[in-house]
Structures
1.
Amino acid sequence: MTKGIEIITEGLELTTRGLDMQGLPELVVKVKMRSLIPAAKDLLTHLLQLNDHELFQPGKRIDYGYWPITLEARGSKRLELLELSHNGNRFVRGVTLALTFWREQTRICEHFGKIFTPPRCDQLVGISHGVLQGKPVVGVRYNPDDLMSGWVIKTDLYDGNMDALTTEHLYHLTAKRPDLTKYLALPAGFRIDFRGQKRVWFDKEVTKWH
């Protein structure tokens, strides 16, 4: 679908040109700062490369890595990209969170030489008391499934009682602990320990557990 399609930048707004020749609405995305323009171009290119005409309709949810975006009609011939709000309760104009999370998470995965494996932000994470309150944490990612992200994150307040763990949607964790979000796309087997000097490492034994 990318053949013959241009991406035009005017100020902080990017617009496709050429989709109308395929009977599709043009895509529009706005960013808050110029530093996000290259990432926004990558997002539009990604959508065009999906080569799925059914995506280009109002209200369609698209997972861009960890964070979802959607499309909203802007007149009769354009669709504007919106993203899930920080607390996960509605879609809002702009794609700052989606672009920021994509960039941060891919950089972490590239640093460790691992495949970018983002969970969905509506998947669940197991947490102990103190995590949402900002205490130093340890965490591990087990093999995920459709419901669970695979992540279990605890603090030193955890006493080993599994019944004391609770589950939260990842977007709640992101809202309360944005400092942890960049590590969430590391694949199963990774551990983090931020109780002193930050440590992040791969433990192959973890992937044997279900």
2.
Amino acid sequence: MTVDLPWIGAVAVAYIVGSIPFGLLVARARGIDIRQHGSKNIGATNVGRVLGKRWGQLVFALDALKGAAPVVGLGWWLGYLGAPEAGAGRAGQWLAVAIAAVLGHIFPVWLRFKGGKGVATGFGAMAGLWPVVTIPAFGALLAWLVTLRATRYVSVSSCVAAAALPVLVAVTRPGAPWPYLALTGGVAALVVFKHRANLARVRAGTEPKVGRVGGSGGAQQG
């Protein structure tokens, strides 16, 4: 992989954009410090539980956008967007931009590196990797919706969707450079790791369920 200043700058920009704490900002605009309520997480699920469904949906959209925007914009600028046959080196550079956006959300510099769990931002970043990961990302979103309807656990649904992502990449893009599988597998592992406490509560029977798909019931994740 060739390390150059434009690529390093792209990674830095992606991290900064990803670290914008939209959940915190939206809640503050409503007069609430979201870190002091519910699960104390800045993610969309906790915002929806505390402030209502439409605010949670807004935060999800903004968090997804901050994942997609640097990936699409910087991918276009660096010439990676729409280039499925790019070699492993170029793919690795672009994927580093995507993972930087996700890490920005999970470990935001503005909040002493205490952020959300990366689901919405990860979805946006993966969907922005056109065309190799875009369709698998929406397939993972479908898996999330189906699992949520079946279990009513947001945390379980997020882990299932994350695990489905690398599988879908392998199935839909069997000739894709190996960094795509490595990154999506790494994102899946990170999402599951961030939800380990939720999964423990599921096993113990103490994890809250949402009242309905899209509802604002109190799942402890975001």
3.
Amino acid sequence: MKISIIGPPGAGKGTYAAELSKKYNIPIIAIGRELRDMVGTKLGDMLKEKYWGKGDLIPSKYAMGILKKRINKKGYILDGFPREVEEAEMFGKIDRLDAVVFIKVSQKTILDRLHGRLQCKKCGRVYHVKGMPPKNDKLCDDCSVELYERVDDKEEKVIKERFKVYHEETEPVIKYYKERNLLLEISGEGSVPEVVKSIEDAIRRKLQIKS
């Protein structure tokens, strides 16, 4: 199974990707996580300083280089990728997706969620202080490693830029995959279990997977 989860910043893509990864036993490939892991290297620091640290998308050539190293032909979940039509076309030359899950969430809901998101320093699992808190204060349920609040979510300027970039660059990707009959539109307004069930039901129907 080869699927992508796309949607606006704060839609819960990482959370839903983690749930699907467990269910289908396939790895997650997240450009954002890869970039954070690269901080401290010459390339990683350059990409942060010039692009994602300011809320901008990194150039497609770097994103593709990361993906080529991580693609598993047996199956995977792309978390928040492709981010623009050019990348969708470029990725289509590398591999073919079975489905693209679009998490549709209102801007108001997203802004509420952005403030209070916590992430594991080791595995990248995402929590929320109100919506989905960890069991043990600020420690990851899986790794027992300290959680941190996403720095880019704290900065109002960066948040606004991420919305701007999303509307300009990523929304056309929705149309691109819809025209190719690969898009699965899911409401992300409900609870995590509700949204996960909706995603699983849509994937089952699309890929004709037996219950």
4.
Amino acid sequence: MAKVLGSIIIVCFAIVAPAFGEDFTLSFEWGDIPLCTSGNPNTVPNPKFVLANVPEGTKVIRFSMTDLDVPSYNHGGGKVDYTGKNTIEPGAFQYKSPCPPGGSHSYRWTAVAKAGSGFFAKSLGKAEATRSYPSE
């Protein structure tokens, strides 16, 4: 009986444990947005995002950008219906561009995979990527 119970526990763990090396990831490039260092951001199309290992069951991905040097400023973001493609092209949504006054700041894009489009839809995973702007 103990052997059977132990085997059941191992099988259950294998079913719910995530596979190693399959983390949801995100990368991006700023693209062709206008240079901005005045502190007054422009409204621009999203960067090109490249996703990997998007969680199974994802219907929507919500994107948001945070200025790590001024996290209280809301740059906005957007949501994209996920159709299985791992590249999100510019123009899927618009946001307030990076625009550090007189220098460079670090910005983090966060992508949250959701099981549906509603506010209370289950989150399936989160990916983040950080870059400086202007790029060095």
